[in-house]
Each structure stands twice: as structure tokens, then as C-alpha cells.
Specification:
The protein has about 400 residues and is an all-alpha fold. The chain has 14 helices and no strands. The chain is about 80% helix and about 0% strand. It is globular.
Length: about 400
């Protein structure tokens, strides 16, 4: 069974239907990401007791969404082009993308830990040992990655069978589950690892070493499609790790201020998720439209792209006030400090509109540049969005917070 372009064009999720599908998905994903936000606010003591853990929080969450985002974005394009099948064997869309995602997860988790340690040393940020960093990053990242990848596969098959547009659903769903799943895994694994004696850490280190060797050997025996994904994915995700780590350092160095107004800790996850998902929807749609010849890789965006920009601002105006509102009252209900309802709404709206503006431009020109260079925009769009939102979002959120919460 294959879905061809002609069938896709008859999909009911078009025009206003697509917009409301995206809005509903965003509302659900943002609401669910408050689970991660409330959890982050509740474990502030752990973030202080385990030096440098906050440095791993942002990029770890980001990489789960980025890798699963590559998966769903590529699968969406294959649906529109009639190449998608519900098979998991070698040299199938689902099978090759699934295996590539797991390999990417292990490799990037190692790199993230090493980069995190180096940047903490350079910036003078207190951090745990490199062995603990690698063990925590790889084990928590792989466990969370398996869950998020499974969700990405599931939602892709559902959209395929229901003939829904995966571009409008994939990025918000996988980034939301990345938020919800990654943080608890990261905190729990970190607590367990830090409590283990040295022999226990060595055993876990050997397990991680086996995982790394498996990933490297799997890369050598990969199919052509897998090699294409890995060849484009690894060079992209490695530098994007740095953006997330720098954002984590920013949060770590401002941790006292964040804990003083812990409602902002609750806001971080839905804020990053919502803005990142808006950007992910944009890049997934533009990537698919470039493949289908509906959008050209021009310096000046076409009218269809401007329409997408406008829809993104409308999404932002509708969900950003809700984020501030829920963050404030979630803090009140949990007995966590808050700067007040109006300041929290203003922080969410002002920072969010600035972030969406940056993501609109970044998302479009990322697709243009990669398409002109002969690469697949699906491999770059969502990762660039979810990684950029870390640094852009953290910087803008902290700056606006400094202005509003004087």
C-alpha cells in the first residue's frame, strides 16, 4: 500500500483545516509539555546538587526532538512523493530511518557529553566528571530516544493511514514527547549514577562503550539511504549540540535568578516546545513544498511562504498568553515562587514573538540554502529549528526577564 500525490491532494486537512490541525496539535503539545516544566521546577534542588546537570538538560531535550524530527520530516516527504510503505526491513523508508535515528542518538549523546564538559571547563562552570557526563548522557539519551523514535514511527503510520498531513503533526508531537520523556530519564539516571560507587560506574561505562561500538559498526554496514541520513545528520547535529550546550550554560549561570522566580522554570519547557514546534511546522511544510515544486529556493520568499509566516504569528498570538497564564497558576498550585500573572504573560508573549520572528527567517533560509546546495531540507529544517530555539530562546527569554523582572 502506497500513498501517491494524487491521493494526498484529496486530503481533507487543507487550507483552514490544516491550520486548525496545527493549532490543535500545538495546544495539546504545549499543554503536555507543562508536565516537563512542572517537573523541572520541582527538581531545582537536584540541579543545584549535581553541578552541570542543567547544561545537559536543554541540549538533551533538543537532540531527542531534532533526531525524531528528521525522522518524521523525511517520512512526510516520502508520503507526499508516494514512496512510503509500512515495512521495517532494510532499504525501506521506515526501517532505514528507524535504524539511522538510533545510531544518531547514541553518537550524538556521546558528543554532547564531551562538548558539555569542555565548554563548562572553558567558561568556568562547575561540572561533574567526564565519565559521569558520558554515562548519564548516553544511557538517558538512548532510553528517551527509543521512546521518542517509537512515538515518531507510530504517529507517522497513523497519519499515513488516516491520510493526515504529517508536516502539521510530526514536529509538535515528537518535540513534546522529547520534553516529557527526556527530562525524567536524565534526572533519574543522573541521581542513580552519582550515587554509584566507582566499580558500578565502571560497569556502566563498559555498557556505554559497547553501545558506542555497536553504533560505529552499524554505520559501516549501513544501507545507502542510512549513509545519506548519517552523512548529512551527524555534521549538522554536532555543531547544533553546541547551541544547546551554550543555552544550558546560560541557564546554569542564571540558575539562582530562575529559582528565585521558579515559574520561569515551568515556562521554559512549553515555551521552547511551542516556539520550536511552530518553527518545525514551517520547515517541514517548506521542505515538502520544495520537493513537490510548489516553492522555489528564492532569496525573496514567495506568497505561499509569507502565508506560512503569517500563520506562525497567529499560532504564537493564540498560544503564548496561555503559556504565561498556565505557568503562573501551575507555580501557585505547586507552591513555587512566581513573579505574578501579568509579568509572566508579558514575558511569554514578548519573548515568544521575538523568537518566532527569528525562527521564521531562519527556517526559510535554512531550507533555501540546503536545497540550493543539493541537500535534503528535511534533514536540516527541524534540527536547525529545535537547536536554534535553545540558544535563541534562552537568550531572548533571559534578556526579556531581566527587563521585566527588575
Amino acid at each position: 500500500m502506497k500513498l501517491v500525490i494524487g491521493e494526498t491532494s484529496g486530503c481533507p486537512l487543507r487550507g483552514h483545516g490544516e491550520f486548525f490541525t496545527g493549532l490543535l496539535t500545538l495546544l495539546i503539545s504545549v499543554s503536555l509539555s507543562f508536565i516537563a516544566g512542572i517537573y523541572l521546577g520541582s527538581v531545582s534542588a537536584v540541579l543545584i546538587l549535581i553541578p552541570g546537570l542543567m547544561v545537559l538538560v536543554t541540549p538533551s531535550i533538543n537532540m531527542r526532538g531534532a533526531i525524531a524530527g528528521i525522522l518524521t520530516s523525511r517520512l512526510s516527504s516520502s508520503m507526499h512523493l508516494g514512496a512510503f510503505e509500512t515495512k521495517f526491513g532494510r532499504e525501506t523508508e521506515l526501517g532505514d530511518n528507524l535504524r539511522s535515528s538510533i545510531i544518531l542518538t547514541v553518537i550524538i549523546s556521546v558528543i554532547l557529553a564531551i562538548f558539555g564538559k569542555i565548554i563548562c571547563l572553558i567558561t568556568g562552570t562547575e561540572v561533574i566528571g567526564i565519565l559521569e557526563m558520558i554515562i548519564i548522557s548516553v544511557i538517558s539519551g538512548t532510553l528517551a530516544g527509543l521512546v521518542v523514535t517509537a512515538v515518531g514511527i507510530f504517529i507517522s503510520i497513523v497519519c499515513y493511514r488516516k491520510r493526515w498531513n504529517l508536516d502539521m503533526v510530526g514536529a509538535p508531537v515528537v518535540t513534546t514527547f522529547g520534553d516529557i520523556v527526556t527530562l525524567p530519564f536524565l534526572v533519574v539516571i543522573a541521581i542513580l549514577v552519582m550515587q554509584l560507587p566507582l566499580p558500578g560506574k565502571i560497569v556502566l561505562g563498559l555498557i556505554v562503550l559497547v553501545m558506542i561500538l555497536w553504533a560505529l559498526l552499524s554505520m559501516r554496514g549501513a544501507t545507502k539511504k542510512m549513509k545519506d541520513i548519517l552523512r548529512e545528520g551527524i555534521p549538522l547535529l554536532v555543531p547544533l549540540c553546541l547551541l544547546g550546550i551554550v543555552a544550558g550554560v546560560l541557564y546554569t549561570n542564571n540558575l539562582d535568578g530562575l529559582i528565585a522566580s521558579a515559574a520561569v522554570l515551568i515556562l521554559i519547557s512549553p515555551f521552547m516546545n511551542g516556539c520550536g514546534s511552530i518553527g518545525g511546522i514551517l520547515t517541514s511544510r517548506i521542505g515538502t513544498e520544495m520537493h513537490m515544486g510548489l516553492v522555489d529556493s528564492k532569496i525573496i520568499p514567495q506568497s505561499l511562504v509569507w502565508k506560512h509566516f503569517g500563520e506562525n504569528y497567529l499560532y504564537a498570538v493564540l498560544i503564548l498568553p496561555l503559556m504565561g497564564f498556565l505557568s503562573h497558576y501551575a507555580a501557585v498550585l505547586c507552591g513555587i515562587t512566581t513573579s505574578g500573572l501579568v509579568p509572566m504573560i508579558l514575558l511569554s508573549v514578548i519573548a515568544g514573538l521575538l523568537v518566532v520572528t527569528v525562527l521564521n527567517l531562519l527556517g526559510y533560509y535554512t531550507a533555501v540554502l540546503t536545497y540550493r546546495m543539493g541537500y535534503d531540507p528535511d534533514n536540516f529544517g527541524v534540527p536547525v529549528m529545535t537547536s536554534s530555539i535553545d540558544l535563541v530562546g534562552a537568550t531572548i527569554l533571559i534578556l526579556v526577564m531581566a527587563v521585566l523582572f527588575v
